[in-house]
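I hope you will forgive my troubling you with a question about protein structure. I am sending you one protein, given as its amino acid sequence and as whole-number tokens for its backbone shapes. Thank you for your consideration; the sequence and its tokens are set out here:
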Amino acid sequence: MEVRETVELTEKEERIFQRLLDVVDHFDLGTQLRVAGGWVRDKDFCTKVKEYQELIGEKQKEREKQKEIIIPCNPDRSKHLETAKMLIFDAEVDFVNLRSEKYSETSRIPTMEIGTAKEDAYRRDLTINSLFFNINNNSVEDLTGRGINDLKKGLIVTPLPAKATFLDDPLRVLRAIRFAARFDLTLSEELKEAASDEKVKSKLGCKISRERVCQEIDLMMSGKRPVQAMSYIRDLGLFFVVFAFPEKSNPPVFDKCDWCCVSHFEAAWNVAYSVPSGVSYPLLLDEQRQLYLYSALFIPLRNMFYLDKRSIKIPVTSYIIQDSLKWKACLAEAVVSIHAAIRNFAELVLLFESNNVALGTLKERMEDEYLDIPTDIVKRVYAGLILDEIKDLWRVALLISILSYPEAENARETLRQQDELHRRKQKYIRVERSITYLDLDGLWKCKPLVTGNDIMRVMQVKSCPLIGEWKKRVFKWQLAHPKGTKDDCIEWIKQSHSKVEFSTW
């Protein structure tokens, strides 16, 4: 890995740094300024910056004044030291002193004290994060003596012994994994051994809030190499710590469950984001990525349930997302809905891909004594009914379904075969285009041609328990007659109703 030991500053960075140095010179502060991760922070220095800017006639705009805030300590939120924040040349800058820290046995919240630059460097989670840029002398400082060398070697290493570092703050295990995946680096052997330690895993499970765990996982998911991150979590034995399961499930957690989940996750990533598609548009929208990846990761768990305190069956996936990761209920509901739609979409894929599917059988399932569906329109009606249930999530559900079916005897090996993944990707593209060609995308947003009141008026009744059934029937009629008008639909209802009344008479 090529690493430069100097820093090339942008024009904006140079302006910001020079402004800070002007403040030091003007007030004769003698302050050493360093950039570490974010900006070097100090509340008093921030006040001087504001005073200096006013002295030279640069009064901040109202919107900037709102940003001149002091952020107090908040240990419950893992905020251990008071910091200051302000805008300089439209860039948000935080200030704080260098510090050292000490940890207790039961908490990841350290006792903070003002420290030296070297103490501050050694307290950091990884050597690659311990590098400072000294603004005063325009140089990179490697106070642990390892940061630059570890970057060159492509290694993720802790400044102090890894096990002690992780026992102090187990969240650093997940941060190490995230940085390794983000920059395509390798975890050191000492770090992997420490991360796999049972005591460290226990501390990670009980000492770190689920919200902080979720935050790290989501950063991994939104990065460039989420498969690498999930693979590390699996290989280090952290899967069931990060994705905590309910105490009992039916069926019970099966052997190699973590390997199976990550295999599906890897396949999903390769299909949507790695394997060349031969098309100029993305398979999924950016906002669907998170939902798609979580749905793929938990595919093997889709038939697992547990009983809550009221003895109600709850999907294990829902527990992991809501209780283990503390995500909002809407994400859990969406993933569960996608999993529930897999079989319907598998049948739909077969319908579009094969000429041997018995359209007659499917036609009979959707028809009744009032509604006759032309054979050549059966695919449109069936696809429309499925899409109406899942709505905007249909592309995610379709791709997840194609990943899952046909289920291979050895899923882990099959889903690693690039030619198999390419075939499934091309299948998705064909079916997605067929659905779009049938003008079904967004059909759930269209208003029905007739309302419940229209139906009651045609039938000449004030109320009828079967109106709900007729509304569903009307929806099928609309799918079968995409160019039909309201008058056409009303005429069909009249004829159907009269025919049945006459038959009954």
In short: Confidence is low (pLDDT under 50) at residues 38-43, 62-67, 69-79. The longest strand covers residues 83-88. DSSP finds 25 helices and twelve strands in the chain. The longest helix spans residues 418-437.
